[in-house]
Design brief:
This protein is α+β, with helices and mostly antiparallel strands. It has helices spanning 49-57, 65-68, 182-196, 213-221, 223-226, 233-241, and strands at 22-25, 30-33, 38-41, 59-60, 93-94, 98-99, 102-106, 113-119, 127-134, 145-151, 154-159, 164-166, 230-232. The strands form four sheets. The chain has a five-stranded antiparallel sheet with strand order 3-9-8-7-4, with no helix packed on it. A four-stranded antiparallel sheet has the order 12-11-10-13. A two-stranded antiparallel sheet has the order 1-2. A hairpin with a 2-residue loop joins strand 10 (145-151) and strand 11.
Amino acid sequence: MTYEPVDLNLTDPTKGFMHFVLYTEPRLGVASSSLNAELKIEAQQTVTPHFQEWLGRLVRCEPNAMHCTLVEPTKIPALFHPCVTEDPSIPSAINGSGCVCRRTFYDPEFGLPVVGQHFKQRREGGTDQWSKTFAPLALRPDDVFSRFHTGRSLFWARTEKGALSILPQREGRGYSVGYSGGGPSALAAYLTQLADTDGQNTAAGASYEEAHPAILAWTQSGAADRGTNELSLGDLKAMQQS
């Protein structure tokens, strides 16, 4: 189907999941997104300040159909289990006090479903080992991009109003930095689009050919991981003029 940015996005919490496109493979028991990129966030990525800011606004909620698309079919029942701290007899309990339940959240700013895997050892302590969510296809219709952040291979956008969002991303066009390949090219193309439109066009999916050479050189250099990990809209426009 044709992707129309104004029609297909998951960025308005008041509309729930109405504008979210899925595909299913009943024979294989697969249900997933066909446009919104799925993100798996590893434990070492959660120490960044931007992840912590995002995590701090997530709200625990009951699991729904969208959460089920973020886990493999055999793990769906675990979405409905309470934590061992709430019920020691749950199926996700391990050796009495350990736990491997799944925790479900939503992002109240952008309406995204989030699943976190809880891992609690028998001794004191434990951590959420990873989280899974979807990237939005665009910022909200009235949002204007202001600043780009990255750290530990996570990519974020901040709006003029100060809201932090996972950087909009299309399925199959993942972002990365530090080498000559599709990931840095996709990121450079998207950042170029933001600069060209003064932060107005935030729809994901810009073609690689649209990437400005200076912005592409930056994403391919790995500078974002080695030092510079934040760029304003003005910084991106200055790159284009250098």
